[in-house]
Amino acid sequence: MINLGCAQVPTDRPHLADPEFDAHIARLLSFSIPLIGVEDLHQNKSDYIVFDTREEDEFRVSHIEGAQYLGYKNFDISRLENIPKDSNIVLYCSVGYRSEKVGEQLMAMGFTKVYNLYGSIFEWVNRGFEVVDNRGEPTRKIHTYKLDWSQWMGRSGMEKIW
After folding, report:
1. Please, which residues bridge with residue 49 across strands?
2. CA distance 57 to 96
3. Is the pTM above the cut of 0.90?
């Protein structure tokens, strides 16, 4: 995990498989909340509460197994009622922008251990990690948010939906 105190692009951020994707994300994010890499989350997932900050239709197509829907436009703090403020929370979306914005809100509400998954679900899938559908079954579908964002989904065999 990387903790940041300013909004500059950290040179020691988690490694992404595609350097162009990394450069794209580095331009999008303000790096206002700490980062966690997909490898770290994959190896230590039981240490975190994982929230998906995409829209519900994106979540239904596929999500990281065990992730809870939190939303972005439909963000509702009541979904966090039973979550202690000092819980280890990982947020993700498609590439990390929306999850960063939700993370900023959580930190402003007093949550103290909030992390943005660097590269988010795209990097998770690009690394070969499994996603599940709304029934909890493994799936080869991924919601890419928009057509032009699907270019960052490099894993072959995935069905891109937008």
Report:
1. 89
2. 17
3. yes
